[in-house]
Amino acid sequence: MAETWKRTVTTFSDRLFPGLSYPHPYSESDYIYFGNEIISSLPLQMSLYFNVLFFPIWLITVAVMLHVKYDCLSNMYRFIVVTVLVAVIGIECLRLYLGYLGNLTEKIPELAGFWMLSLLLQFPLQIFLFANERTVPQVVERAVQGVMLSLLVVELVSGFIALRRAARHQTKRFHLLQLHMQGSSTPLHHKEE
């Protein structure tokens, strides 16, 4: 099950961001080291930071508003809203974790997971909570939902740019390694003995 899921995510990521995963027969120590070039995205990191700060405010507001309007909702919408909120809370925690990990450590799979969770799950659920009139949205709820949706849109755009940049960087590293391995049998960096 886990291997199938990993293969599906890798296939989808490779189609969307070509060059993300190239199998190579060389060990990690054979890679050419470029120094301390940082490719993390500052706009993505700032939006993630503000999202982490705003998430508890959003959570408290939505929970209080759900308690206030619960009796006004139909039975079907009670179930739907509670289910959507539970899903949004779980996805948001995982999404923010993957975003931080992927951006700060420059790990492409985590960054791709963050971006796909944002686009495929979180964005439609947040739109539902923001725009559906049958959930009887209050003014305060619309305000915090609007801020949350704005942060999500900024994260989608900056996450896409960061992922493309990281994929290009890794692709360049891969091609330089291939060129180096074809040209000589010793790596360019010095190994400590």
From TrEMBL:
InterPro entries: Uncharacterised_TM-17. Its main location: membrane. The keyword Transmembrane helix applies. It is found in: Membrane. Keywords: Membrane, Transmembrane, Transmembrane helix. It is a multi-pass membrane protein. The chain crosses the membrane at residues 48-70, 76-98, 110-131, 143-163. One of its GO terms (biological process) is non-motile cilium assembly. This is Transmembrane protein 17. It comes from Timema genevievae.
